[in-house]
Task: structure prediction
Amino acid sequence: MPIKKWRHELPLHLMLLPALVILIVFSYWPMIGIVIAFQKFIPAKGFFGSNWVGFQNFLYVYNLPDTFQIVYNTIFIAVMKIAAGLLVPITIALLLNEMMKERIKRTVQTLIYLPHFLSWVILGGILIDVLSLKGIINQFVSLLGIEPIYFLGSNHWFPYVLVATDTWKDFGFGTIVYLAALTGINQSLYEAAVIDGANRWKQTLHITLPGIMPVVILMTTLSLGNVLNAGFDQVFNLYSPQVYESGDIIDTFVYRIGLIDAQYSVATAVGLFKSVVSLLLISGSYLLAYRFAGYRIF
Amino acid sequence: MVQKPGIGRLVFVVLNYTFLIGLALLCLLPLIHVLAVSFSSSAAAMGGLVVLWPVDFTASAYKFALQKPEFLTALLVTIKRVLLGTALSMFLTILTAYPLAKEKTKFRWRTVYAWVFVLTMLFHGGLIPWYMTIKSLGMLNSIWALVLPGAVPVFNVILLLNFYRGLPKELEESAFMDGAGHWTTLWRIYVPLSLPALATIGLFTIVGHWNSWFDGLILMNSPENYPLQSYLRTIIVGQDLTMLTTTDLSLLNELSERTVKTSQIFLGALPILLVYPLLQRFFIKGIVMGSVKG
Result:
């Protein structure tokens, strides 16, 4: 009975309509706007009125002296963040799991989530204060007899400061996932292991780690999609022209040439390059996550 | 059978507690330091004498911040944004998740729609076309530019639709037997039953709106339309005091750039500090439910 079915489904279509309109306007229309990467775009003429120039914008970016450095910075910072973002939460979850005093454990958990909820503007403000030459960290460092370190102004330190502070912000949040996985491990396995004479370390090695392995594999494969996301919010709030050399990433570069220098077409070309590579990486990582951990989005 | 812990175990336990408590403090102390600076006198703050407790306690930096018209207008914009944005996003999330949670046999177009939604998470037009779109709609400088572009949080829709799917099918069937339509079923049965999930998503949406700064920075042409975080961003980068200090000179003698900055940073973080312990209770269920389905 197709007519009855249509009447049954009509309200469902209507429910999706408002969200669909918003997505078409703010997500799909900008996707069409990508055409300006192949144009000499003039805002007054709109997405389709400007002159077409083929791949000229891409060639221009390819020939810029900084391009290689920016791609390198992006991947270098992102890969270190991904690695730290996997290892630290797993380690902390294992250590927290060994804490027997429930109240202390819960307090520690609550406190380590704290930075996750603050914006990079707030954290940027705090970190700029704390890490400055006269900041509290450098006061401590000079007590140890070491020269003050210009954490946010030195190309040597800046990428590592990015990785460290990003890990600091989010490890508590990442820990939740692994703690949840830990509670899912069958307790009778531990009892059996104790009877067999396994000590704590052996138990961790042979029960706990294999027990959370599916989740570790899932999180690892999913994180692979982020290789071109080195964290715009963070870099933008912490960097300065002094550290462009080591800290400029694709997203901050797009912002500067696009919105500050108003080279719209060039910025869109860079953005398109990133979007396409990201799409491939994310699709690939979802596929891997599905293959190896049975992950499905819904 | 309780075994006596060996000496190695004891050393481990002591080290483990010390390390983890230290780590927890590492997440808290920077904030306390900034708080202490903001309540210190200008001389103490500039001299770097403040560690974790205010030196020469004074609240004048806060008085200054709370009297500053820029700060207050920005706060107002943020409050407007949080209320409007959260209400709209929650409504759309509830409404969208329901049809997408249906079985394919009950709603034939479901998979097509689902892909239309998910694709927006995978591929973006990029910053410039996005900005141009909003500009060409004439939305620059309007609160709608802060609220509408992100009004459909697809990730939250997926969280909620996974939750809806966990509800017993019989509930829906009996509602239909009693003559209820989709609309009634959604609001009378699905929504009340998914309150924990909705609370999680709602709090995250509130935090998200409170914290966003980049859209405000580029979509608002004049600083009086900036939401709080965008305004704070301009202070953190600098220029601030020279621009805005004509008001109260006697007050200013007690102030330094550092105390003014830190007091405003702290005020910008305060609401989040108040709600985040609440979030924790919900999100363990919420996040795990959505992100780690086996």
